[in-house]
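Ops channel
N.P.: pipeline sanity check, posting one input/output pair.
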């Protein structure tokens, strides 16, 4: 979604016809990749489709990303670094819903089309971390053994993890809001997100709890969404 730039609070969501307006060199590189794909398709007759998605989350995500970074830091009682005031808005899409959309796009075999895949789950980063904190508390209530496994987690003491939030300087060119209008892919291919954000965050926390050895082998980085 970085290719399309930033939306203000009252702006309509991006559609397949939205102009590219990247805000940073990183975002421009994503827009350039799309242009290269279209150019190769036109020049050499390669069959291709493009799908632009909103923020993915779920199992196996690199610990540098916002959701796994916050989950891991909560478990270890470390600060939760959030850019600015946490008011950047993202549309969150569970990776399984994205995979289902990709499968539908491939099976449709409509070369040359661009599809937008969204999660219909806009949230500020601050609110997202609050939901993660609530889901983490619930996980510790369900499983008494977590308190001994992760004694530094505030939830092990019956406390909220929200207290770990630390606001840090915003990054240059940080887009305020992304949002997707998914009506085209729903109308043409019947694709609609099936995993609500609350349920998806619970599943994601459970996965990281069950796969501690995996994320300990890949230390968190610095990216925060």
């Amino acid at each position: 979604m970085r290719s399309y730039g930033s939306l203000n609070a009252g702006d309509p969501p991006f559609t397949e016809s939205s102009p590219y307006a990247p805000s940073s060199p990183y975002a421009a590189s994503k827009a350039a990749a799309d242009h290269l794909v279209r150019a190769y398709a036109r020049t050499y007759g390669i069959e291709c489709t493009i799908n632009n998605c909103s923020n993915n989350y779920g199992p196996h995500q690199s610990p540098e990303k916002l959701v796994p970074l916050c989950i891991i830091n909560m478990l270890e009682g470390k600060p939760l670094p959030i850019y600015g005031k946490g008011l950047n808005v993202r549309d969150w899409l569970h990776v399984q819903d994205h995979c289902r959309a990709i499968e539908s796009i491939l099976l449709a075999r409509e070369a040359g089309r661009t599809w937008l895949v969204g999660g219909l789950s806009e949230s500020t980063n601050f609110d997202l971390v609050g939901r993660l904190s609530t889901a983490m508390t619930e996980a510790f209530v369900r499983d008494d053994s977590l308190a001994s496994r992760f004694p530094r987690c505030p939830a092990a003491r019956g406390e909220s993890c929200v207290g770990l939030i630390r606001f840090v300087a915003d990054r240059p060119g940080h887009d305020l809001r992304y949002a997707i209008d998914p009506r085209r892919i729903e109308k043409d291919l019947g694709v609609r997100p099936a995993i609500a954000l609350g349920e998806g965050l619970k599943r994601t926390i459970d996965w990281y709890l069950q796969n501690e050895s995996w994320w300990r082998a890949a230390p968190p980085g610095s990216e925060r969404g």
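N.P.: looks fine end to end. Residues 2-216 form a domain with the Rossmann fold fold (CATH 3.40.50.720).
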